Amino acid sequence: MKKKITLIGAGQIGGTxxxxxxxxxxxxxxxxxxxxxxxxxKALDIAQSSPVNNFEVSLSGTDNYxxxxxxxxxxxxxxxxxxxxxxxxxxxxxxxxxIKQVADGIKxxxxxxxxxxxxxxxxxxxxxxxxxxxxxxxxxxxxxxILDSSRFIYFLSEELKIPVNKIKSFVLGGHGDSMVPMLxxxxxxxxxxxxxxxxxxxxxxxxxxxxxxxxxxxxxxxKFLEKGSAFYAPAASGVEMAESYLNDLKKQLPCAAYLNxxxxxxxxxxxxxxxxxxxxxxxxxxxxxxxxxxKNFNDSVKSVTELFNAAKKxxxxx
Length: 318
Ligand code: TXD
Prior knowledge:
6-stranded parallel β-sheet; binds 1,4,5,6-tetrahydronicotinamide adenine dinucleotide; alpha/beta
C-alpha cells in the first residue's frame, strides 16, 4: 500500500517537493493550497511526466482538508516568503495566522501524521504549529538545519575543491542569523577542519566568511530572485526527513525539534541533531559542544525564545 504525503502549500517549495517525491516513487501526493488551481495544475503537470520518468505514484490537488485525510506525512510550506530586504522574522505575524488555519485543518484529519514544517520564521512557526494542533511533540518537527548544513558544506567544498560527499558537518540552533555551524564537528575527508587551518589549507578569516555566507544563505538567493526565496535545496532537505521517517532509516539529521531538557532547555524548539525513524523524532542527540559552541547555541535559542514571546503578544493563546 503506497504511503500518502500531503503538501500544505503548493508554491515554489511545495511544487518542488511533489516533483522530488514522485521521482523517488516515495509516496502518493496530495497537493493542498488555498489557491486550489495551483495545487491541481502542478499535480496534473507532474503526473503527466510519469511516462517519461517511469514513476507510479498518484498526484492530486485540492483546497479541501477532507482530501488530505489519514496522511502518513504532512509537509507544510503554506505562508508567504521573504521579499528582498526582509528578515525571516518579518514574516511572523502573517505566517502565524496561516499556521493556525493549517493546524486546525490537519489535527483531526491526520492525527497520526509525521508533520514537517518549513514555513518561516521556522523555529517559532513549528512551535506554534505543535501548540495549535496539539499533535505529539515527537511527530512535529521543523526543517532548517539540513538546508543550513547543506549550504555550509557546499561553500566549504567550493573553497577547498573537495567533493561534498567527503565533508561532514552540521549547523545547530535557530534558523536565522544566530545559527551555529559546528566547526569542532566539521571533518574534511576525515580530518578536523582546525587541522586544515593549522596546515594553512584554509584561513580562519576564510572560514568566518563561509560561516557568515551560510547565515545569509537565504537572503543571497532572495536578492537574486527578487520575487520569492530558495526552494530547490529546501525541498530536497524536506524530502530527506520524510524519507527517513517513511523508510525507518533512523538518520541523524539536524532539525528544529522539541527540547525537554536536552542541551539545558525545556519547552522550546531549536535546531539540534535528531534521529528520525518510523516513530518520528526518536531521539534528540546531545553532542559535546565546545564552550564557544555552547555560548553560540545558547544565544541562538535565546533569540528563538524572544521571537516566541513576540508571537505570544500577537496571539496570547499560544
Ligand atoms: O529552511 C527553511 N525552513 C526556509 C523556509 C527555506 C526557504 C523558504 N522558507 C519558507 O517557506 C518561506 O519563507 C515561506 O514561509 C515558505 C514557503 O516558501 P515558498 O517559496 O514555497 O512560498 P510560495 O511559493 O509563496 O508558496 C506558499 C504557498 C502559496 O502557494 C500560497 O497560496 C499558500 O502557500 N498558502 C496557503 N496554503 C494553505 N493554507 C493557507 N492558509 C495558505 N496561505 C497561503
